[in-house]
C-alpha cells in the first residue's frame, strides 16, 4: 500500500490516521462541530482521531463511529478542566 511502517496507532503519522480513522457520516459531523466549538488545533484534531481509532479497534470495529469520537472527545474535555483540590 505504500504506507509507512507503524506498529501502533500512537506511531502512525497524521496522514495515515486520517485515512485509517475516516469516520462514518455522523462521526464526521461530530468531529467537525467539535473542531469549531472546542477550537481544536490540527494536533488536537489528529489526537482525537487517534484515540477514536484506538477505541474502535478495542470494540472490534472496522470504522470509527460517532460513539468512538464522542468518547475520545470526552477524555479531551476532562483533560482541559483544572485539577480539583483533594
From TrEMBL:
Start and end residues of each Mg chelatase-related protein C-terminal domain: 8-76
Protein name: Island insertion determinant, chelatase family
Amino acid at each position: 500500500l505504500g504506507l509507512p511502517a507503524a506498529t501502533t496507532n500512537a506511531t502512525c503519522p497524521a496522514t495515515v490516521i486520517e485515512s485509517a480513522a475516516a469516520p462514518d457520516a455522523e462521526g464526521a459531523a461530530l468531529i467537525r462541530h467539535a473542531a469549531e466549538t472546542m477550537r481544536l488545533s490540527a494536533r488536537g484534531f489528529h489526537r482525537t482521531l487517534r484515540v477514536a481509532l484506538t477505541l474502535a479497534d478495542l470494540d472490534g470495529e472496522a470504522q470509527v463511529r460517532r460513539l468512538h469520537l464522542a468518547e475520545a472527545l470526552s477524555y479531551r474535555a476532562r483533560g482541559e478542566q483544572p485539577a480539583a483540590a483533594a
